[in-house]
């Protein structure tokens, strides 16, 4: 049988890694797919730049539109990233009858509904395993492996760059900006790294996970997003003293009132496996009603871990080239007509426990005022940590862990605490989840 011909758009970290894995494991991959896979063409913006892969036998172009309209290409692999021109290229590839494999979470989170509809109309596949948690086969796990469950909630460390930064700050006390530069050098970060550190990349991935876990449309605009830029080395140290680690988590939870969708730094008990997921590694904890909690761990970014997912998708597409499109696994796990509009809750309605850090004057009665305000808002305190006065400072750091409270109630209490003359500046708050 003739080889299946593929064209790759973008030969950077992920595109280059994909070529390397396809070449190195060609025999194994052919045995699995049933057909030889041949990368015929690839596009890259700068044809003269050195790259991580050998391009012998691959026709290079700086015009990706040539590839999506090439009648010989059966599968287009999109590893350019971003919205423009990726969206247009993917839509054109589909219009030209090509299956698509993409690593682009932004594209799927923002335009997946439209892209999958176009693919369905033409009986084509759009595979996106690399878009969430890099090399962890999490899309396949939820869509197929957990199909018998009602998913209750999931919580994931789904941005490798920010986990790398938090780990280096926690283990080595390194500077934020310094570690971010290293993540960029290693190819982990997005083209615009603010997406990583401000939680946007994790929110793109959470949008996709929530959709396939609960059978809801992709709704990036409804995710509450808070990144890690406000986390200081002191917060990491205080959390540790209380038995917690701080991780950037994406959380999606089904409640009787609606669905929580949120990305924010979170204190997690240090004894939990997920609290010990460090560096660029990702992990997704999923609670299904039948299976209970399952934890999925692996590299969340980097050339070959991500290529592992891209190549698996290519193999999936090749295997199904001859099968009836109607019988394939639906893009968003649920049958298109069964996708339902369960409401997404606003962040004020969500209940969590909190870590609060305040700067308080060192005199009697100050803590009593704070606890009085918390009690008036029915907020119970789980633990208090009072630190020595830092040198040259006029106020003491006081850390409190609360029990669960709605964000609305906590905001009201924090406003009153911040208005106390004995409290300096803003009260720092980080949400806390026990994930039990
Ligand atoms: N780097 C990683 O570890 C991971 C990246 N991803 C996703 O994979 C995609 C690619 O990321 P990387 O490989 O890291 O990016 P990269 O910057 O290393 O490579 C991008 C490639 O696309 C080409 N390109 C960029 N803009 C273009 C344009 N306007 N027109 C034509 N070509 C263009 C560049 O020349 C380069 O070859 C993104 O969607 C990213 O979010 C997903 C998982 C992990
Ligand atoms: N920038 C992303 C890359 C993988 O999706 C990350 O750091 O996780
Ligand atoms: Na994945």
From TrEMBL:
It catalyses: L-homoserine + NAD(+) = L-aspartate 4-semialdehyde + NADH + H(+). Keywords: Amino-acid biosynthesis, Metal-binding, Methionine biosynthesis, NAD, NADP, Oxidoreductase, Threonine biosynthesis. It comes from the Bacteria. GO terms for biological process: methionine biosynthetic process; threonine biosynthetic process. NADP(+) binds at residues 9-16. Residues 355-431 form the ACT domain. NADPH binds at residue 105. GO terms for molecular function: homoserine dehydrogenase activity; metal ion binding; NADP binding. Coiled coil: none annotated. It holds the Pfam family NAD_binding_3. The active site is at 205 (proton donor). PROSITE patterns: ACT, HOMOSER_DHGENASE. L-homoserine binds at residue 190. Its cofactor is a metal cation. It is an enzyme of class 1 (oxidoreductase). Pathway: Amino-acid biosynthesis; L-threonine biosynthesis; L-threonine from L-aspartate: step 3/5; Amino-acid biosynthesis; L-methionine biosynthesis via de novo pathway; L-homoserine from L-aspartate: step 3/3. Its EC number is 1.1.1.3. Belongs to the homoserine dehydrogenase family. This is Homoserine dehydrogenase.
């Amino acid at each position: 049988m003739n080889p299946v011909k593929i064209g790759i758009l973008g030969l950077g970290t992920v595109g280059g890694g994909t070529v390397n894995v396809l070449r190195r494991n060609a025999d194994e991959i052919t045995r699995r797919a049933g057909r030889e896979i041949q990368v015929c063409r690839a596009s890259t913006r700068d044809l003269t730049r050195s790259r991580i892969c050998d391009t012998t036998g691959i026709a290079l172009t700086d015009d990706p539109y040539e590839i999506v309209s090439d009648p010989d290409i059966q599968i287009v692999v999109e590893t350019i990233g971003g919205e423009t021109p990726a969206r247009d290229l993917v839509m054109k590839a589909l219009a030209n009858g090509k299956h698509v494999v993409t690593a682009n979470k932004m594209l799927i989170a923002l335009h997946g509904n439209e892209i999958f509809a176009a693919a369905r109309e033409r009986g084509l596949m759009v595979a996106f395993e690399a878009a969430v948690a890099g090399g962890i086969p999490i899309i396949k796990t939820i869509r197929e492996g957990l199909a018998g469950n009602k998913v209750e909630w999931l919580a994931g460390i789904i941005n490798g760059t920010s986990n790398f930064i938090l780990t280096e700050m926690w283990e080595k006390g390194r500077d934020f900006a310094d570690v971010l530069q290293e993540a960029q050098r290693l190819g982990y970060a997005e083209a615009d790294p603010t997406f990583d550190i401000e939680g946007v990349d994790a929110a793109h991935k959470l949008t996709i996970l929530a959709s396939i876990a609960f059978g809801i449309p992709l709704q990036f605009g409804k995710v509450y997003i808070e990144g890690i830029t406000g986390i200081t080395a002191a917060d990491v140290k205080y959390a540790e003293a209380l038995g917690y680690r701080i991780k950037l988590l994406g959380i999606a939870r089904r409640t009787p009132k609606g669905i929580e969708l949120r990305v924010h730094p979170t204190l997690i008990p240090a004894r939990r496996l997920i609290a010990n997921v460090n560096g660029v590694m990702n992990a997704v904890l999923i609670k299904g009603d039948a299976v209970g909690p399952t934890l999925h761990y692996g590299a969340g970014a980097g050339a070959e871990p991500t290529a592992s997912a891209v190549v698996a998708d290519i193999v999936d597409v090749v295997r199904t080239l001859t099968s009836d499109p109607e019988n394939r696994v639906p893009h968003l796990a649920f049958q298109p007509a069964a996708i339902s509009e369960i409401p997404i809750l606003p962040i004020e309605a969500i209940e969590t426990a909190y870590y609060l850090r305040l700067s308080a004057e060192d005199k009697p009665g100050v803590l009593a005022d704070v606890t009085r305000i918390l009690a008036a808002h029915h907020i119970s305190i789980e633990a208090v940590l009072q630190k020595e006065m830092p040198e040259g400072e006029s106020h003491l750091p006081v850390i409190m862990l609360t029990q669960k409270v709605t964000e609305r109630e906590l905001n009201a209490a924090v406003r009153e605490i911040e208005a106390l003359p004995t409290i300096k500046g803003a009260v720092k708050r980080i949400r806390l989840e026990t994930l039990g």
